[in-house]
Amino acid sequence: xxxxxxxxxxxxxxxxxxxxxxxxxxxxxxxxxxxxxxxxxxxxxxxxxxxxxxxxxxxxxxxxxxxxxxxxxxxxxxxxxxxxxxxxxxxxxxxxxxxxxxxxxxxxxxxxxxxxxxxxxxxxxxxxxxxxxxxxxxxxxxxxxxxxxxxxxxxxxxxxxxxxxxxxxxxxxxxxxxxxxxxxxxxxxxxxxxxxxxxxxxxxxxxxxxxxxxxxxxxxxxxxxxxxxxxxxxxxxxxxxxxxxxxxxxxxxxxxxxxxxxxxxxxxxxxxxxxxxxxxxxxxxxxxxxxxxxxxxxxxxxxxxxxxxxxxxxxxxxxxxxxxxxxxxxxxxxxxxxxxxxxxxxxxxxxxxxxxxxxxxxxxxxxxxxxxxxxxxxxxxxxxxxxxxxxxxxxxxxxxxxxxxxxxxxxxxxxxxxxxxxxxxxxxxxxxxxxxxxxxxxxxxxxxxxxxxxxxxxxxxxxxxxxxxxxxxxx
Length: 475
Fold this sequence. Notes:
Layout: H1 2-20, E1 26-32, H2 37-50, E2 66-70, H3 82-91, H4 113-119, E3 123-128, H5 135-138, H6 150-160, E4 164-166, H7 183-189, E5 192-196, H8 198-204, E6 210-214, H9 217-222, H10 240-254, E7 259-265, H11 267-273, H12 277-300, E8 305-310, E9 314-315, E10 318-320, H13 339-353, H14 359-370, H15 380-394, E11 401-403, E12 406-408, H16 410-422, E13 425-427, E14 432-433, E15 437-443, E16 451-453, H17 457-466
């Protein structure tokens, strides 16, 4: 009996030891820019509300078995920006706000987990729903004292040698004084094939040695800084799902034994800056759809894959509840477009209707695009606010409303705010906050993510789990 027990104990121990020593060959690192605890909870609460239930309907990553929460402060500020936050998540080192891949002395270079993976022989991809030279993706390859040096950041992208990049476009592809080739030419000279959209990627991927997948040139003429919000998406627009699918396809082709892919849901942050709750939720669900693509891969390689999801910071200070103990997140379903696009829609509508742009016409439009007076009941005060905002437009006195990444009409901003209020949601800021951010993990090595951790711990834990490093190479 004792011998049998000992045998079973040794077997159990060896099984646990083998599990603990699993080394993932394929690593996915998702970053929801601006995605704090309440953004995730809000999305899950909204999905449950659409099903007529009180509670939550978990996102795919919300059901991952291992969770933690992380701090986000930077070396210079209690509230980080995306450059310092991205650098922390990429390199395991804190720096000052605005800095990419350098220590606070603005000189000492620190390398990222993507570089560690590359040095370990993995094929590496860095991708995002915004521009490829934006702060978060740049944190994985760039070394600049200021995130706004987009051309210089782009040159760092070329120099990285990573196999795959994807995003909307380059923000500043041309050298200011014209003394150097544009970034597209530099990429091509470095052996990168540039694809414009997912279909173009499919045509070019087989023969490409390295790949940069950008949106179509037509899309970039409208907005080179990002792909469209999920709520505004039209047929043919590039999606984060396509970006993730292309990344997996290309990296696995390059090295079926080992790859690392970072995917950023970059416009969660943008919508949070605008306090646009419905758009935020759709962006989180959209990133979750991209996570599902990685999860499908995980299901095919469960003992060889690690997926980690986190955020660089929280944006907006969203609160779920503002006046009583009721939540009405289901009302958000009546919003038909993002707040910035609705402001453009109002401008187009006024131009189209001319003198027929009456308050009655506005009411009809708000009913169609926000559910006002139909399913969303307004107070007398809210109706008066809308009337005043309409008068300001007609009289040419609309002063507009600005957030970090968008300009809105005062009326468009007001409509969004009224819907937020009626859904019982509140915001404390149009900027970042110091709120904790969640960490979710599944797969080989995922059990090391638990409890309260520092954001700088995350890349080091990934590096250790995947065998890229024993400790932070930057220290």
